[in-house]
Amino acid sequence: MADDVIFLGTRGTISVDNEHSKVYGGTTSCVLARIGGQTILLDAGTGILAGEEYLTKGAFSILLTHPHFDHFSGLPAFSPMFKPETHADIYGKDRNEQTVREQLCQFMAPPLWPVTPDAFSPNVRFLPVTERFFIGEVEVLTSESNHPGGTTHYRLNANGKSIVYAMDFEHNDKYSAQLAEFAADCDLLVYDAQYSDEEYERHRGWGHSTWNEGIKMAKQCNAKRLVLTHHAPSRSDSELSAVQLNCDIASFAKIGERIVL
């Protein structure tokens, strides 16, 4: 099978479920990348719950950007984590002097959750994020983003193809230049575009970007394709479709959409 990407979760901040979110999706951040013979899930929001059908080998990796609720809240209910035959590596950067496992334990514990990560398959490993590491033949590069509490950008390189996943990113001169260098000449840039330009002015410092800044970034880094995601909870299908008509080089992620690299 060709290397590809599938959007399992596209909504930002919190899941929504209504008649206005059927096309572009209501579950939170999760992107499935099949590249270099590996199955890699980028983030584990509620969208990850749709991912089980793609995990045919029982072995996969999860790259977490940061521990904000909308990016890992699907993990405690993701059934493959509890199957003994599952082999999964969960990567995340230390935050607040806590490892990624310790971050997850804050949520997966009474009274907030009935079971802890101890209930996961014994073949689940929690691993730290470094600047460069490998998952099989896939080279993973990382860069820190501009977001309250910090978050990680990921670049996956394999088979002459590259995917850059830039979630929860607030643009500014310093960090935009850093991201442009990190994402240079990538085949696919997945970019946080929660706000319009007008909304952003009311939400400076909240840690998110706009679709126009995403288009600027794609041109600056010479990305071959740009997909905008992390849709605002209140953004309807009709609103996103209307904006899409004016985005010449970008597309808004649709739930279940598959992109072949």
Give structural notes.
The chain is of the alpha/beta class and 261 residues long. The protein has a single domain, classed as Metallo-beta-lactamase, Chain A (4-Layer Sandwich). Helix content is 18%, strand content 28%. It has a 7-stranded mixed sheet with strand order 6-5-4-3-2-1-14, with no helix packed on it. Strands 7-8-9-10-11-12-13 form a 7-stranded mixed sheet. Strand 12 (226-229), helix 6 (237-244) and strand 13 form a beta-alpha-beta unit. The longest helix is centred in the C-terminal third of the chain and has 11 residues, at 211-221. It is globular and about 50 Å long. The model has no long low-confidence stretch (mean pLDDT 95).
Fold topology:
Layout: E1 4-9, E2 30-35, E3 38-42, E4 59-63, H1 69-72, E5 87-92, H2 100-107, E6 124-128, E7 132-135, E8 138-144, E9 152-158, E10 161-166, H3 173-182, E11 188-192, H4 197-202, H5 211-221, E12 226-229, H6 237-244, E13 250-252, E14 258-260
Parallel strand pairs: 3-4, 4-5, 5-6, 10-11, 11-12, 12-13
Antiparallel strand pairs: 1-2, 1-14, 2-3, 7-8, 8-9, 9-10
Helix pairs in contact: 3-5
Q: Which terms summarize this structure?
A:
single chain; 261 residues; alpha/beta; Metallo-beta-lactamase, Chain A; seven-stranded mixed beta sheet
Low-confidence stretches: none
Shape: globular
Overall pLDDT: 95
Spell out the CATH superfamily: Ribonuclease Z/Hydroxyacylglutathione hydrolase-like
Helix/strand order, N-terminal first: EEEEHEHEEEEEHEHHEHEE
- Helix tally equals 6
Q: Give the fraction of residues assigned to helices.
A: 10-25%
CATH-defined fold name: Metallo-beta-lactamase, Chain A
Largest sheet: 7 strands, mixed
- Class derived from helix and strand content: alpha/beta
Architecture, CATH level 2? 4-Layer Sandwich
Estimated share of beta-strand residues? 25-35%
Query: Within the largest sheet, what's the order of strands?
Result: 6-5-4-3-2-1-14
How many structural domains in the coordinates? 1
Per DSSP E runs of 2 or more residues, the count of β-strands stands at 14
Distance between the termini: 11 Å
Rg, Cα atoms, Å: 17 Å
Provide the CATH top-level class.
Alpha Beta
